[in-house]
Amino acid sequence: MLALWDLQRTLPICGALLIAALALGGCSSQLADLAPADAQPHVREPGTYLPVHDLPPDRDQATIPPEQRAKIEAELAAARDRQAVAAKDAK
Question: Origin, by domain of life (predicted)?
Fold first, then answer.
């Protein structure tokens, strides 16, 4: 038979375990809702590695035209120079 001291000690522990179990059980039911309805099932054979050396087909083509890239680099360099001057003036 449990003594009163044992009940006072085990009752809060059992209550905390019950609350934790209910909270975790409630979270797990919502995980299935995160995937979109039209998502394809991701089936992969166990023990296979991802293709590391396979590159996308248009990897050789630049995504930004060279003229636009030069313009962006010039703007970034000018902004860097302005910030350096402003930091020097602030000291």
Answer: Bacteria
